[in-house]
Specification:
The chain has 26 helices and 19 strands. By secondary structure, the protein is of the alpha/beta class. α13 (326-340) runs parallel beside α15 (357-363), α16 (375-387) runs parallel beside α18 (405-413) and α21 (521-532) crosses α25 (621-632). The two termini are 53 Å apart. The chain is globular and about 80 Å long.
């Protein structure tokens, strides 16, 4: 590991108020130190790197011009908040970022008064900024007071429709607020769609747009080259439908584009806007993701998410893989299915790498679609593809699919359209914490009429479920799988089509049956080894389906055992609740069956390793063992002894 960088100016910063003591030249040097500090920190902890490096100068400039925490800086998504955290009193805690008991990798209200609004998903910042402004006008109480509201949103997040809904409302209300469009021509993946093209055209065709009302009369505050640029832009706009037209039609005064890495541009323009703005303003800054660190700048993802790495070489310290990742298995199997069926196509929402669809796109580019951060559109797009005779696979993270749930209900389920939902990041995911935990998709999918819901117990089962989804044309079907490596089981060359609604018996036993849905099956089998040492041999079954349930198998397990335990990597209201409903409807409880359901607890679990998070959830092997002993009363006997 490299030694810590020298940071004499940063060492004098405890809160953003300390930035007021620095000259503009010193603020520029401070930005260089902050970039070096960010690189050094992430090299030791891992985490999101590229986004933060792209906004170092912007972070310094915003905190130098505005008065936080009274003024609210709201970072959209907030992958880019590491430099912000360093400047806002959390520098000494950065070594704990994204770790158990440490600080979050995203903004978090409970962590700091400088985080006025938590984030981790996209396109929410403009709505939040407007909410703060209206709250201030209505006399709402804020512990840090009310001032300006500044939303910092990337061009990727701007593809989310919610951003434009908020801008439309903000333009109508005419509240003084600031939206900083951080245009790095890239979200997590490559830029997608017409908006990216539009922003690029603004940059290439118009170096500096008219300041409009926000800076009228204040051009003299700009450095000399920009005074002339602003005058030229004003003349140019008289005869051209260019520049900020789109944003101005939404009621915003548009300023830019400007170089987001040039403090000689950022500082005077922000000061001008701060002094003169009377209504909503959009400042368009162009930045470079991964700026200032060559290994991030040259990476395909611009250093978006990194394991621990060596600063000099950029080499990441990743543990060797013992088994293929579930995401890779899904992508490989989908490619094989698509080779035989030209109707198969794949859709994702700005996560081609994360969902494995970058591999599919390399093979079948005409059948792969990245719709941007627009899950609602993505789901309805899939619905119409299905109605048009295609076989769409909608590949989204569990927590991202939540944003398209209304469309899942109305556009897919009600119309019984055969959209295949590949739900990645099921269950607890580790360092990203509660915001990315796939806790709810079992419940929100399984309660829809006609929806088939599967969960893979291991990577071989995932192969079968991809094949099953490809063959299923009777209505919508979903299959879920976790982040990370598989179990290391033997893999089939091609998946087999499963019988819908049929589970599988794993091992025969007596007294107690454990019915697993998803990848807790591995932990269940570990628990059984410990239980056998006590002379207890549970029956184990893999449900495979939460909907439709394997009624015959479940009722047989209930009939032949004194106790039945279900386990799933999801919140209450999912698989176990459906099993309980079946047992109640069939009168099984009237005959004295002992029933327990192991689900995620009714709380948000903070970041840690997945194992540690499942310890908190009490869903690892030792907890399953304890549940079996408890339901059989063995723990009580042990305590008496």
């Amino acid at each position: 590991m490299s030694t810590k960088p020298e940071t004499p100016l940063l060492d004098r910063v405890n809160t953003p108020a300390d930035l007021k003591q620095f000259s503009d030249a010193e603020l520029t040097r401070l930005a260089h130190e902050l970039r070096a500090e960010t690189i050094s920190t992430v090299s030791q902890t891992g985490g999101h790197l590229g986004a933060g490096l792209g906004v170092v100068e912007l972070t310094v400039a915003l905190h130098a011009v505005f008065d936080t925490p009274q003024d609210k800086i709201i970072w959209d998504v907030s992958h880019q908040c590491y430099p912000h955290k360093i400047l806002t009193g959390r520098r000494e805690k950065m070594g704990t970022i994204r770790q158990q008991g440490g600080i979050s990798g995203f903004t978090k209200r409970s962590e700091s008064p400088y985080d006025p609004f938590g984030a981790a998903h996209s396109s929410t910042s403009i709505s939040a900024a407007l909410g703060f402004k209206v709250a201030a006008d209505l006399g709402g109480h804020s512990a840090t007071g009310h001032g300006d509201a500044i939303a910092v949103i990337g061009d990727g997040a701007m593809t989310g429709g919610m951003a434009f809904e908020a801008m439309n409302n903000a333009g109508h209300l005419k509240k003084r607020m600031f939206v900083v469009l951080n245009d790095n021509e890239m979200s997590i993946g490559q830029p997608t769609g017409a908006l990216s093209t539009y922003l690029n055209r603004l940059y290439t065709e118009a170096p500096l747009q008219d300041f409009k009302a926000a800076a009228k009369g204040a051009v003299s505050l700009l450095p000399e080259p920009f005074r002339e640029g602003a005058k030229r832009a004003k003349e140019m706009l008289k005869g051209m439908a260019l520049g900020g037209t789109l944003f101005e039609e939404l009621g915003f005064s548009y300023v830019g584009p400007i170089d987001g890495h040039d403090m000689d541009q950022l500082l005077p323009i922000l000061r001008t806007l701060h002094a003169r703005a009377t209504g909503p303003v959009l400042l368009h800054v162009v930045t470079k993701k991964g700026k200032g660190y060559v290994h991030a700048e040259s990476a395909p993802d611009k250093g978006h998410a990194r394991a621990k790495f060596d600063v000099v070489s950029g080499k990441q310290h990743k543990s060797p893989s013992n088994a293929p990742s579930y995401t890779k298995v899904f992508a490989d199997q989908l490619i094989k299915q698509a080779a035989d069926d030209p109707r198969i196509c794949a859709i994702t929402a700005a996560m081609p790498d994360g969902t494995g669809l970058d591999l599919f796109a390399e093979r079948y580019p005409s059948r792969c679609f990245d719709v941007g951060i627009a899950e609602q559109h993505g789901v309805t797009f899939c619905a119409a593809l299905a109605a048009g005779g295609m076989k769409p696979f909608c590949a989204m993270y569990s927590t991202f699919l939540q944003r398209g749930y209304d469309q899942v209900v109305h556009d897919v389920a009600i119309q019984r359209l055969p959209v295949r939902f590949a739900i990645d990041r099921a269950g607890l995911v580790g360092a990203d914490g509660a915001t990315h935990a796939g806790s709810y998709d079992i419940g929100y999918m399984a309660n829809l009429p006609g929806m088939v819901v599967m969960a893979a117990a291991d990577e071989a089962e995932l192969c079968h479920m991809v094949a099953t989804a490809a063959a299923h044309d009777e209505g919508p079907i979903a299959f879920r799988y976790p982040r990370g490596e598989g179990e290391g089981v033997d893999m089939p060359e091609r998946g087999e089509v499963l019988e819908i609604g049929k589970g599988r018996m794993i091992r025969e036993g007596a007294r107690v049956a454990i019915l697993s849905f998803g990848t807790r099956l591995g932990e269940t089998l570990k628990a059984c080894e410990a239980l056998e040492a006590r002379g207890i041999k549970p029956t184990v079954a893999d449900a495979r389906f939460a909907k439709p349930l394997d009624r015959d198998m479940i009722l047989s397990l209930a009939r032949e055992h004194e106790a039945l335990i279900t386990i799933e990597e999801g919140a209450v209201g999912g698989f176990g609740s459906h099993v309980a409903q079946l047992l109640a409807d069939e009168g099984v409880f009237d005959r004295g069956l002992k029933f327990r359901s192991m689900v995620l607890p009714d709380t948000f679990i903070d970041q840690a390793s997945p194992k540690a998070m499942y310890d908190v959830a009490a869903m690892n092997a030792e907890h399953i063992e304890a549940k079996v002993l408890s339901v059989l009363g063995v723990d009580l006997l042990d305590k008496r002894a």
